[in-house]
Amino acid sequence: MTATTPGRRPDPAAPHAETGCLTCADRADPATVLRLLPDGMALVETGAGTEVVSVALVRASVGDAVLLHAGEAIAVVTA
Hints:
Helices cover 0% and strands 38% of the residues. It is mainly beta and 79 residues long.
């Protein structure tokens, strides 16, 4: 049985790297915080350019690597 057997809920422990988010099919992509902005926002470098995203859910600092999902930083990546 796989994580996506029809009629069964997906196994939350199964890897979803190929399919992305079970809800919206988006992925979490890495980015680097360049500047913190007002109202829980930040300017980040994504590798494809810069964008403004929300960092309201994490404690991010300038220089931190974060994972972005749907315009929201959902984790700070530590080495």
